[in-house]
């Protein structure tokens, strides 16, 4: 885009000078990609020190002084948006844009709003956030291929061995047709032959050669497997570690596709290609060339005849591959539809039965199963049509040789043995052609996968650790200063949020769901970076702290406890892998988890996660509390579960939490009254802004307060429940 | 608390626009300021079941919903025109008229097209999920930025375009 923009900008600047505007005073320029709603074109917005200038493509323009603007904001629609200007009570759209430029729009609107407020804007282009979930980087065909190959030279020895075997095999493969053709008929069987009657030595040589070929094949397979196995290990490790280092936004974005696939099947595609595709491609290419040259030397006329069907074969294979791919893709889609029907019905069996929908589900399954079966039939029919046709054309080549060559033999221009040699080479020639065309398909698959994999590897993380990040002993003072944040451009989640939590204090975050409470904790743990303002821990910006120091100082007890596959003991020790068994038990005891754990037959060695024991919600919560107790961090983030548990479990969790929050800075996203009352202070968040701060008593009694309203509603609900 | 959906009587509606064609509403004679309109079933019904909501919408205030308009055509012609204009703006999904160049490489596709909103070049990745086929040969494309494009009848597109898209449909 670079050059084009500068050209456009230059044009714009010239226009501005004509209007009598000092172009040196320009703070920022925004070019949108619509000239009015729903029409591609261009509108240019220019931020000047005291006013906003809007230029249409036809040259018309208007200027608004910041003194008259209340603020500027954006409206986002399905795949476009408008920039709206508010002047007092008057609203007007000043420009329209599509999502392609939304990040730039966000950046520009921020600048204007800062200018309106009389603040210093950050007009650096570098502060524009990445626009798409991932910017599409076209690596280019050649570059991509070279990069895949670049993994190979790390294994030079393997490579040299493979190449030598390939060359050798190709040469050895050329011998048998000659022996079983010219030598057999003209020299061994013919009465005047040089080796007349030497049938046994000939057969022995042929057996030896085919034995040798098999041996080389095995050797090639072994070395190849070893090399590609290691290459695939390298690639998988690289992708996985690249993923682990990426910010949260990467994982929550929609367009990153199936990440599991990237690690597994994409890597497999590359392996497949490097292991089978590439060596065989080289063997076959070498074979085709060698045979071609050999045939041409022996008999130019016949070799031309032999080559006639080759392009036809290549064309048929290419055409049918595309068709097969389409049918296969449909089969895949249909089978995944069918699988999801099975999956839905089995997982949701309670719902199905409760609604008496068994018949409907059977019908739904039958329908998807039928569609899949139909497509499988189509697959079979297509295969049945193409392959006989291919073998017919191939045999046609043989027949041409027989016909032309037979004539030559009769006329004495060719010996019978030479003809047989030709036929022998012919069969060696067509197989590689088939293979070469298929290799092309493999190559495409491999390149697709490589593109997707390298996209992940090359992706820059949006939350990066600073090079000279500091490590400190965290005490636990937290401060948010004017924090503004949005997950997606133009959709502000937090607006100018400021509050502080002193060491050892417990603060409850309260607000409706979606108010921004979890977002606040995400910013403190730096899962995301703020757009504006700063988050300080002990007076140090979290961006300056090392990840090890920051995350090692914050313990989390989340609503949804994720337990990894492994034993309960290992899960408790997740944050402190070197914990002793005694420490683990101690933590579990304090978390009121010890009792239920030892009543399980396998105690602390009970396997959980996939295929392991099923724990209830309350049990999982206590394990995650034990995790936090064991880790013993100076700061604790506690996201209270909304689901209610039985009274006994609840009081146990309450006691466990009481222990956990003691002498620790705690930020609790709280729902229960007991937790709210326990907090030293409550911070009420509403629509991304802090609206109230104070103790439970203060806020509860505040007339028309947000918290008071919420609390009273909840109390009414409790009363209603207990009275019914 | 409003528990029932309010199907709006069209006589209560009076839309008007600003100079820059933002949509405003007087409802039962009361000026509600700027409103947004939303299709309830954007794929199924384009002109029916339209939710009207007061602009200062937030997801916590359900009462911002004024009600549901059963069909835009129930409105007088001049009023319907305003709503159609607004729908056209909010659901800006240009129709692809012709494709001058399409290149598919490594599971992504780049297009040079002429649409009902003018010329447009765009890039798509992950064709498996971003090509969505709808009933009657209609196809919806989503580019890397989330912008959408619409092909009313894939069978009427040129061979190259069909070739690129056919396996995903």
How would you describe this protein?
Chain A has 724 residues and is of the alpha+beta class. Among the domains of chain A are: 2-127, Pleckstrin-homology domain (PH domain)/Phosphotyrosine-binding domain (PTB) (PH-domain like, Roll); 144-293, ABC transporter transmembrane region fold (Up-down Bundle). In chain A, 56% of the residues lie in helices and 15% in strands. In chain A, the strands form six sheets. Chain A has a six-stranded mixed sheet, with helices on both faces. Chain A has a four-stranded antiparallel sheet with strand order 1-4-5-6, covered by helices on one side. In chain A, strands 11-10-13-14 form a four-stranded antiparallel sheet, with helices on one face. Chain A starts with a helix and ends with a helix. Chain B has 169 residues and is an alpha+beta fold. Chain B has two domains: 10-90, no CATH class; 96-166, no CATH class. Chain B has three helices and eleven strands, in the order E-E-E-E-E-H-E-E-E-H-E-E-E-H. Chain B has helices at 77-90, 127-130, 159-166; strands at residues 13-17, 23-27, 30-39, 48-54, 65-71, 96-105, 108-115, 118-124, 131-133, 139-142, 148-151. In chain B, the strands form three sheets. A five-stranded antiparallel sheet of chain B has the order 1-2-3-4-5, with helices on one face. In chain B, a hairpin with a 5-residue loop joins strand 10 and strand 11. The termini of chain B are far apart. Chains A and B meet through strand 3, strand 8, strand 9, helix 10 and helix 13 of A and helix 1, strand 7 and strand 8 of B.
């Amino acid at each position: 885009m670079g050059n084009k923009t500068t050209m456009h900008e230059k044009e714009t600047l010239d226009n501005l000078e004509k209007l009598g505007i000092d172009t040196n005073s320009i703070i920022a320029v925004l070019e949108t990609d619509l000239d009015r709603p729903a029409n591609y074109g261009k509108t240019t917005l220019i931020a000047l020190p005291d006013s906003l200038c809007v230029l249409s493509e036809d040259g018309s323009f208007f200027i608004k002084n910041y003194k008259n603007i209340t603020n500027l904001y954006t409206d986002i629609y399905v795949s476009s948006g408008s920039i709206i200007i508010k002047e007092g009570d008057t609203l007007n759209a000043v420009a329209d844009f599509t999502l392609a430029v939304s990040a730039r729009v966000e950046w520009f609107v921020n600048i204007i709003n800062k200018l309106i407020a009389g603040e210093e804007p950050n007009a650096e282009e570098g502060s524009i956030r990445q626009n798409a979930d991932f910017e599409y980087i076209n690596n280019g065909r050649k570059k991509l291929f070279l990069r895949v190959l670049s993994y190979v030279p790390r294994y030079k020895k393997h490579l040299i061995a493979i190449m030598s075997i390939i060359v050798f095999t190709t040469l050895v493969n050329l011998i048998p047709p000659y022996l079983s053709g010219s030598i057999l008929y003209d020299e061994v069987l013919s009465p005047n032959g040089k080796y007349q009657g030497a049938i046994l030595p000939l057969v022995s040589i042929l057996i030896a050669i085919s034995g040798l070929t098999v041996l080389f094949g095995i050797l090639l397979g072994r070395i190849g497997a070893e090399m590609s196995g290691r290459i695939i290990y390298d690639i998988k490790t690289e992708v996985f570690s690249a993923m682990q280092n990426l910010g949260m936004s990467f994982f929550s974005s929609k367009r990153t596709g199936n990440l599991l696939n990237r690690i597994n099947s994409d890597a497999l595609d590359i392996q497949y290609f490097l292991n089978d595709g590439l060596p065989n491609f080289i063997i076959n290419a070498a074979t085709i060339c060698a045979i071609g040259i050999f045939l041409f030397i022996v008999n130019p006329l016949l070799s031309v005849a032999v080559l006639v069907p080759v392009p036809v074969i290549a064309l048929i294979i290419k055409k049918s591959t595309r068709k097969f791919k389409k049918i296969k893709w449909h089969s895949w889609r249909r089978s995944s539809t069918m699988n999801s029907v099975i999956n839905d019905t089995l997982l949701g069996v309670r719902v199905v039965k409760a609604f008496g929908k068994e018949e409907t589900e059977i019908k739904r399954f039958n329908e998807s199963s039928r569609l899949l079966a139909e497509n499988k039939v189509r697959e079979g029919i297509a295969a049945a049509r193409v392959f006989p046709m291919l073998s017919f054309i191939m045999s046609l080549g043989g027949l041409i040789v027989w016909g032309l060559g037979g004539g030559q033999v009769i006329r004495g221009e060719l010996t019978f043995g030479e003809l047989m040699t030709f036929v022998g080479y012919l069969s060696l020639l067509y197989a590689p052609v088939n293979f070469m065309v298929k290799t092309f398909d493999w190559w495409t698959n491999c390149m697709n996968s490589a593109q997707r994999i390298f996209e992940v590897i090359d992706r820059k993380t949006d939350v990066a650790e600073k090079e000279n990040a500091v490590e400190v002993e965290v005490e636990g003072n937290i401060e948010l200063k004017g924090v503004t944040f949005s997950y997606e451009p133009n959709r502000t989640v937090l607006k100018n949020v400021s509050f502080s939590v002193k060491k050892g204090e417990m603060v409850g975050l309260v607000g409706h769901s979606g108010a921004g409470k979890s977002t606040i904790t995400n910013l403190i743990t730096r899962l995301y970076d703020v757009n504006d303002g700063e988050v300080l821990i002990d007076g140090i910006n979290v961006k300056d702290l090392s990840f090890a120091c920051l995350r090692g100082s914050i313990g989390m007890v989340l609503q949804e406890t994720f337990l990894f596959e492994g034993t309960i003991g290992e899960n408790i020790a997740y944050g402190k892998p070197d914990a002793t068994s005694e420490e683990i038990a101690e933590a579990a005891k304090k978390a009121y988890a010890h009792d239920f754990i030892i009543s399980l037959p396998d105690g602390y060695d009970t396997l959980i996660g996939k295929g392991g024991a099923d724990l209830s919600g309350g049990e999982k919560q206590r394990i995650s509390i034990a995790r936090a107790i064991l880790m013993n961090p100076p700061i604790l983030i506690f996201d209270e579960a909304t689901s209610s548990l039985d009274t006994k479990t609840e009081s146990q969790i309450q006691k466990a939490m009481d222990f956990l929050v003691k002498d620790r800075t705690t930020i609790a996203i709280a729902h229960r009254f007991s937790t709210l009352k326990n907090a030293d202070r409550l911070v009420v968040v509403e629509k991304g802004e802090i609206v109230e701060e104070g103790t439970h008593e203060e806020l509860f009694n505040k007339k028309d307060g947000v918290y008071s309203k919420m609390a009273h509603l909840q109390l009414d609900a409790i009363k209603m429940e207990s009275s019914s | 608390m409003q528990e029932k959906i309010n199907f709006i009587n069209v006589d209560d509606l009076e839309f008007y626009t600003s100079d820059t064609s933002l949509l405003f509403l007087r409802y039962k004679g009361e000026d509600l300021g700027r409103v947004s309109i939303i299709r309830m079933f954007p794929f199924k019904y384009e002109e029916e079941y339209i939710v009207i909501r007061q602009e200062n919408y937030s997801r916590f205030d359900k009462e911002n919903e004024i009600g549901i308009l059963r069909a835009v055509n129930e409105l007088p012609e001049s009023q319907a025109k305003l709503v159609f204009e607004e729908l056209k703006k909010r659901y800006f999904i240009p129709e692809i008229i012709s494709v001058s160049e399409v290149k598919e490489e490594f599971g992504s596709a780049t297009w040079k097209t002429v649409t009902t909103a003018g010329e447009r070049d765009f890039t798509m990745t992950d064709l498996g999920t971003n090509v969505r086929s709808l009933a009657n040969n209609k196809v919806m494309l989503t580019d890397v930025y989330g912008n959408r494009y619409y092909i009313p009848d894939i069978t009427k597109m040129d061979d190259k375009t069909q070739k690129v898209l056919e396996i995903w449909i």
